[in-house]
Design goal:
By secondary structure, the protein is of the alpha+beta class. The protein folds into 3 domains: 49-68 and 179-235, Alpha-Beta Complex (Penicillin-binding protein 2a (Domain 2)), CATH 3.90.1310; 74-175; 242-595, DD-peptidase/beta-lactamase superfamily (Beta-lactamase), CATH 3.40.710.10. Helix 13 packs across helix 18.
Length: 599
């Protein structure tokens, strides 16, 4: 190889080495940037790229039937100050110095978290520190406070001169406090999705659609530019009447406190439509002994006790197994049926008609009547109840509401206990739905909590009353069972909700009520049924001659002595009297019926 060729090879080798070293250096720098300097460069990139931020939609309102707010998203605001704005720095901060005293005074007067002197000191320190986003108020302020502050001379100059700006947040509030709180429901955190009640059931409609804004560099400043407007949520109009809700809740609260009960539940429903006008659930707190809305007992199933006797008798009467004037013998001693002993709270040796057996609420009589009617064909008993519509899936709008549990009994021993409300489970709402059908000439309607969805006050969707069953039984059965429910309240010799000496129970001289009491022993874990702890119920309708409302009251574990007619019957009586006075309907005065009208 010649000298010239060797020199050429060396030149190429040197060039190759230089290129490789350069490539290695570049590669090394890339690796260094992607590892060691990665976070710093990402921050730089973030400053250069417009930042998209969601614009939260305002959650829709939940209204009562008269348009009053039951739940609403009220705007609240964080107040910030950008102390770096040029206007505050010009002429050695003349604008800031001229207005800091009045700004501090207004903050102390309107917000009141600190004194004027302290506000002035805090803001001045932020100004000296050249803070970009100083939080002027420690907590959120409301709309009225913001309006008042915006009258301040400095703030009125706008955010580009004052540096002051507001960021809104929406807080879900319930103006009526605990009224129907569990039914209205709640949301997750601030501005979250519904987690219970109507808030959860209608979450999609209520929450609306978030918009989008973009933080962009405009004229040397970061500005928020709206890319897409938020669409506010729709409003939900409920069947609840806030005034009736107040009546029901106060009556229930008075009785649960008086009886030191574990919990209480009361529901008031419009007979013809199924509109739930009031629904109250009160639980005794373990901490302070006061009552709060903690669980929605209205839709949680329990053993109903003697209120189920009416359902059992409707089945037997409609199947032609018994007649309302048939008789049954009861004794003061328990009636043994195979392995089970049936006892009565009101012990007596006598012969009762079917009508009287319901009035006195005899367990022995019902056990004998139902086992005699369906012995060997217990399946037919359950199928008859299914035909009434009570077990249909059509139900109210509360998420998680329990379904009826009425299983076909494997033996007649279980059937005998089912006859008076054990080995079956229904919620207070389902019990109410059945008795409402009796009041409504046999027509069973679905309990309703929402009548419409609105946008800007205009209906965009309406919900009509829905019939579950056009008739739960024959007209004759309906007439017979109504006469028996009348005696429960008005037969002063046998009726479990009738007047006794000093106790009026469900009897009212203002409005006629018919209905049924129920008492169920509570199951104590590890010990079985307790003979000393009970669940009390009264469910009825009024005015009896032309029912407008159906009402149930259920009280769990009241202190001794307990009596369903006195505890729950009297509560329904109070609700009935006040409801009639509020709505305007037939009442009685000195034995004379007259019509009162609401203004």
């Amino acid at each position: 190889m010649s000298e010239e060729q060797r020199n050429t090879v060396w030149r190429f080798a040197i060039i190759f080495i230089v290129i490789m070293l350069g490539f290695g250096a570049v590669l090394g720098k890339i690796v260094y940037i992607q590892t060691v300097e990665r976070d710093n460069w990402l921050k730089v990139a973030e400053k250069q790229v417009p930042t998209n931020r969601p614009i939260a939609a305002t959650r829709g309102n939940i209204l009562d039937c008269n348009g009053r707010l039951l739940a609403s998203s009220m705007p609240q605001y964080y107040m910030y100050m950008d102390t770096r704005v040029p206007a505050l720095r010009e002429k050695s901060g003349a604008l800031f110095a001229a207005h800091i005293d009045t700004l501090a005074l207004d903050l102390a007067t309107i917000v009141g978290e600190h004194s004027q002197a302290e506000y002035k000191a805090r803001i001045t320190q932020a100004y000296r520190s050249n803070e970009k986003r100083y939080k002027v108020c420690d907590h959120r302020i409301n709309y009225l406070q913001r309006q008042a502050l915006e009258q301040n001379k400095l703030i009125k100059k706008g955010k580009y001169k004052s540096g002051i700006f507001f960021e809104d947040q929406h807080r879900r509030i319930k103006p009526y406090g605990i009224l129907a709180s569990r039914t209205i429901g709640g949301i997750y955190g601030e501005g979250g999705s519904g987690n219970s009640g109507l808030e959860k059931r209608f979450d999609k409609e209520l929450k609306g659609e978030d918009g989008m804004s973009s933080i962009q560099r405009i004229g040397g400043r970061n500005e928020s530019v709206t890319v897409e407007e938020a669409k506010d949520g729709l409003d939900i109009v409920t069947t609840i009447d806030a005034n009736l809700q107040d009546i029901v809740e106060n009556a229930l609260l008075a009785k649960t406190k008086e009886r030191n009960a574990k919990w209480g539940c009361a529901i008031l429903m419009e007979t013809k439509t199924g509109y739930v006008r009031a629904i109250a659930n009160l639980d005794r707190s373990q901490e302070d002994g006061e009552y709060y809305e903690a669980q929605n007992h209205a839709v949680q199933r329990v053993e109903p006790g003697s209120t189920f006797k009416t359902i059992a008798l409707v089945a037997a009467l409609d199947d032609g197994k018994i007649d309302i004037d048939d008789t049954v013998t009861i004794t003061s001693e328990p009636w043994r049926y195979f392995t089970v002993k049936h006892t009565d709270a009101h012990k007596m040796d006598t012969i009762l008609t079917v009508r009287s057996a319901l009035a006195v609420s005899s367990n022995i009589a019902l056990a004998k009547l139902i086992t005699r009617s369906y012995e060997g064909s217990a399946k037919k008993f359950v199928r008859r109840i299914e035909k009434m519509g009570l077990m249909d899936s059509v139900y109210c709008e509360i998420p998680g509401a329990d379904k009826v549990r009425i299983d076909i009994p494997k033996d007649t021993v279980t059937l005998s206990k089912m006859s008076y409300g054990y080995s079956v489970e229904l919620s207070p709402m389902q019990i109410l739905m059945f008795y409402n059908a009796i009041a409504n000439n046999g027509r069973m309607v679905r309990p309703m909590l929402v009548t419409s969805i609105q946008q800007d006050g205009e209906n965009i969707k309406r919900f009509r009353p829905e019939t579950v069953k056009s008739s739960i039984c024959s007209n004759r059965t309906l007439e017979d069972i109504r006469s028996a429910l009348h005696d429960v309240v008005w037969d002063n010799r046998l009726g479990t909700a009738a007047a006794r000496l000093w106790s009026r129970k469900a009897q009212s001289n203002l409005v006629s009520i018919a209905g049924k009491t129920g008492t169920a022993q509570l199951i104590i874990p590890g010990h079985g049924y307790s003979s000393k702890r009970h669940r009390m119920t009264f469910v009825g309708y009024f005015p009896e001659e032309n029912p407008q409302y159906t009402c149930i009251c259920m009280i769990e574990d009241p202190q001794f002595p307990y009596d369903a007619g006195q505890d729950c019957g009297s509560t329904v009586r109070v609700i009935a009297e006040k409801t009639m006075a509020y709505t305007g309907c037939y009442i009685y005065e000195n034995g004379t019926k007259r019509l009162i009208k609401r203004d």
